[in-house]
Design a protein that fits this description.
- The chain is of the alpha/beta class.
- The protein has ten helices and twelve strands.
- The strands form two sheets. An eight-stranded mixed beta sheet has the order 6-7-8-3-9-10-12-11, sandwiched between helices. A four-stranded antiparallel beta sheet has the order 2-1-4-5.
- The chain is globular.
- The chain starts with 22 loop residues before the first strand and ends in an 8-residue tail after the last strand.
- 41% of the residues are buried.
Length: 335
């Protein structure tokens, strides 16, 4: 018989949302079923498990966590590249998941995405002019001459010479390719830009240039941004608020300065302690219980040095913290 699915915490009644957000995510979930040993489907993987947050106008909101924590899955659901298993997404107070067909094609220009790998996200057979002009041709149906002028403007906006428009992606460095990807993403003048690990595949020497470019574009175009990363030092530089994900659950959400100065969740503290030169003391993990040992309780209980029976038996909900953030930890007030 299939094993029962892990218990998921109920969302807090006063979920961590803003008064008038641009984007509102409520109890968002994505589950991938796994084949059973006999027939039917066994309990699957909860890639995203009841996540709620909001992004304000002209705000940069960061999502951080280890690989496999669900960060990119959330970004792709917001961009409508994959469908969620449950939950709600509202964009400018409109039901984003209710859109389909022509209405979705018309509205999705308002939310665009910069992908992690500039090597995989650009078609090697296309010229740069075709790559950047694709959304203009698909959504705006601009005439060829107007598209050429617009492509030249976009290349200049990301720091590239318009003369490179006739070249192919293989003729560019990784940083230059990511600039091309950014030019494509802003071509339709979106209101929300989703940046999915946009510098993780780049040399360290180039990362700062791309981050500065994203900052400049956000300020100049008055965008909101969802910035997805596993690197907290990058998030500290770029983001106004940060949500920390662990095994598909949001375990802490706070303004960036508050999160770095006084992290409330043990997992957040572990992430900060892992930053080279942070000077933070690493808390020793329990010697026995492996990660994920308590799926019916807190997902971090198997690695948490502060875990007790309550943590292993009941999943904590994300609740307001006196310091001004939100934390999903039964013992946050004690430790």
């Amino acid at each position: 018989m299939p094993s029962p699915a892990p218990a998921r915490p109920e969302p807090a009644a006063d979920a961590p949302l803003l008064a008038a957000p641009l984007l509102e995510v409520q109890d968002l979930a994505k589950h991938y079923p796994l084949p059973g040993r006999w027939f039917g489907m066994a309990a699957g993987v909860r890639a995203v498990d009841g996540v709620s947050f909001a992004i304000g106008r002209q705000e940069t909101f960061g999502l951080v966590g280890e690989s496999g924590s669900g960060k990119s899955t959330i970004g792709r659901m917001i961009a409508r590249l994959i469908d969620p298993s449950g939950g709600r997404i509202r964009f400018q107070d409109r039901d984003w998941l209710a859109l389909s067909g022509a209405a979705l094609r018309r509205e999705r220009r308002r939310v665009q995405m910069v992908f992690q790998s500039p090597y995989a996200s650009l078609d090697p057979r296309w010229r740069v002019a075709d790559i950047v002009a694709e959304p203009l041709r698909t959504h705006l149906r601009l005439p060829a001459a107007e598209r050429r002028d617009r492509v030249a403007e976009l290349l200049q906006a990301v720091g590239l010479d318009p003369a490179v428009a006739d070249r192919h992606p293989h003729q560019f460095s990784g940083g230059q390719r990511q600039r091309i990807g950014i030019a494509r993403a802003i071509a339709l003048e979106p209101e929300l830009l989703i940046a999915d690990e946009p510098v993780s595949a780049l040399d360290v020497s180039v990362q700062a240039q791309i981050l500065a470019l994203l900052q400049e574009i956000k300020a100049r175009r008055r965008l909101s941004m969802l910035f997805i990363s596993h690197d907290l030092s990058v998030v500290a530089y770029l983001c106004d608020r940060v949500g920390v994900l662990y095994h598909g659950r949001l375990v802490e959400l706070a303004p960036t300065r508050a999160l770095f100065d006084a992290p409330r969740h043990p997992y957040t503290r572990a992430l900060l302690a892992a930053i080279p030169g942070s000077g933070r003391r690493r808390e020793a993990a329990p010697p026995t219980a492996p990660a994920g040992a308590a799926p019916e309780g807190c997902a971090y209980a198997g690695r948490c040095p502060h875990a007790r029976d309550l943590c292993r038996g009941a999943a904590p909900s994300l609740r307001p913290d006196p310091a001004g953030g939100w934390v999903a930890c039964h013992r946050a007030g004690e430790i």
